[in-house]
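User: Sequence for histidine kinase below. Tokens please.
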Amino acid sequence: MSSEQPAASSENEERIRRFLAIASHDLQSPLRHIAMYAEILLDDLADRLDGDQLKSLQTILHKAETAQRLTKALMGFASSAPQVTATEIDLDGLVREIWVDMASEVAASGATLQHDSLPTIISDAAIVRIALSNVIANALAYRSASPPVVTIEAEQDSADVTIRISDNGPGIDPTHQDKIFDAFWKRPQDGRPAGPGLGLTAAREMLRALGGGIRLERSNAGGSRFAIRLPSPRT
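Assistant: Structure tokens for histidine kinase:
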């Protein structure tokens, strides 16, 4: 039995990589064209648009460029040769950007975001964005009757940066907690069809490429808390 488990794990990992490679590659062309046409429209029509129209077009361009960066990061991971680019990341700014990107989900759920001043860190911005986005999106999707409250905290020492994301949701059933990072598994939710889940799996694998990780610290009737660990660069 023990000899079968590593083989199954390796096969599953390869399946994930193939899926990410195909999906990321196929998304690159339409995303590139969306960004290109948004730039053309901005150049040709900027002086004829009102403030809201101009902002909408700029948002389309920004979201397309962000999606391009994320799919490139996924393609690097899928090729077993992730291109890790360490840059300064303003966590305050990144969290606000992610929250704005999820404006429709925030409005539909009445969610609020809470966080004190978050530090500036050194890491790969695309990978950190993917990890944070997946955890926050799950907090908005798997909510209780009360509007979601997402709380983000971060602490940094000489070895690691730890980002904790907490919510006030119903918690994760104990029978499901060991499955949430499994590829293509999605937590059942009343009233919604079950579909393939890959977000947390991809986040975990890409964080590993940085030498970091993600784990569920707690989950009960008061909500869940995830911890993302990132190595601090050596000076």
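The two ends are 45 Å apart (CA to CA).
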